[in-house]
Give the backbone structure.
Amino acid sequence: MAEIVSLAEAVERAIHDGDAVAMEGFTHLIPFAAGHEVIRQRRRDLTLIRMTPDLIYDQLIGAGCASKLIFSWGGNPGVGSLHRFRDAVEHSWPVPLEIEEHSHAGMANRYVAGASGLPFAVLRGYNGTGLETLNDGHGSVPTTEAPTIKPITCPFTGETLTAVSAIRPDVAVIHAQRADRSGNVQLWGITGVQKEAVLASARSVVTVEEIVDELDPRPGAVVLPGWTVSFVARAPGGAHPSYALGYSARDNDYYVAWDAIARERGTFTRWLEDNVYGVPAGQL
Amino acid sequence: MTSQVSVYDTAAAYTADEMMTVSAARALRDGMTCFVGIGLPSSAANLARATHAPSLVLIYESGTIGAKPAQLPLSIGDGMLAETADAVVSVPEIFNYWLQPGRIDVGFLGAAQIDKFGNINTTVIGGDYRNPKVRLPGAGGAPEIAASCREVIVVVRQSHRSFVERVDFVTSVGYGSGPGDRERLGLTGAGPKKIITDLGVLEPDPETFEFTLTGLYPGASVSAAKERTGWDLAIAADPEIIAAPTPAELDALRSYKHGPASGGRARSHH
């Protein structure tokens, strides 16, 4: 059963140096407050997993928390580059960053396999792409020690399809609209790959806009029963500058402004001091 | 951008980007289902829905099916896409149930680099994979959109650097190395049918599948198109002159782009 604790305690107990951590939320419900707490607690050597690294991983990478990134689209949506991500890949600043990249469909199916307790998932994908060569374990520039993409023959039709290996993170971190006092979690709107990420992971942290007595039904809502979640922490506004449908709007101006903040190491470091290290947990 | 407007009549009341977006919008028919990439493709698809194709079904990889945004979204996951959609599904579902089986008529993609067989690169440019000259965002949904939509339309500004003989990295497959490659690779969709640029339209040669200039905008020249192409661009026997944007098309495009999601300063921080 989920324990309802402070965000600082949830991060302290769930996330350790060297862990593989998936902070998911597809544009919507990105767990920024939890990401900032991980930076504040100065976690190191994390393998960060996320389909769209977005600003949240630009911040964690720039703060030196990660040694590896597994992802499928690393840009600032509608704006341009993630400069901290690029600086880490291109110049190893502040620390070297190993990368493993996939397509969205490949990543989504890897989470499905993890959530399903299967070693791999099957899809039609990757054929003829450079991504297949990068990840099949014997390409000219393999990015990982173990292959994550292999051809597989359908036992019924003989067709050749693509197998992708399961993702099984140590910890999933997501933001949701609400939880009840038993730790049952409810999220709605664009729900992305969060259910799969939580069910694929050994532990999980869920931050929520509010904790309520009763979760009345919402159209299209995903409910994660409390016994599938390790920790729930209240973090109102914890998805900003992304958003929580019904609670806040996406702060598109912030995404545009991030470009200038992240472009130079100096402005980024000042931003980190003023907006993360200088802010106690729960006061974002 | 190098003086985009200079290839046009100086009296032109629209930009090269506007002409490109209008041209791309016209390629979409009413009632089609369209898997939309962000950026130029999203502008064009939304313009089509606002003008001649009100029943166009916009599908974004965030899982929003039948989104009807009133203004141009900045990202593929803006709240208004979910709030106006016919259905919102998870990310595994949008790729596995909706894209993969070939239900979607047209995939609308952008590109950082594209080659004469319509292969797209959005991963790395120059150097090698580990030490690229430019690190781009990567694949996103594009590889499977390019593989599985019934057909693909690419919207991209034309330049000598972006239109290359062979892409530096194949992120999304067009026709591979030529005829027969899509079948050999088991790609179920028909592949890219048009590349719509800021100079005109390219379509694959029916025999060689090499992209050929088949249409030009008013004021754009064959020589400019050749100059801004990194391979020896073939020209159709009689390239169509594509009609300039109508006032209605321009009005619709401008009112969309100048809305609250265009990156302007006029919005509140909720």
User: Anything to note?
Assistant: Chain A has a mean pLDDT of 94.
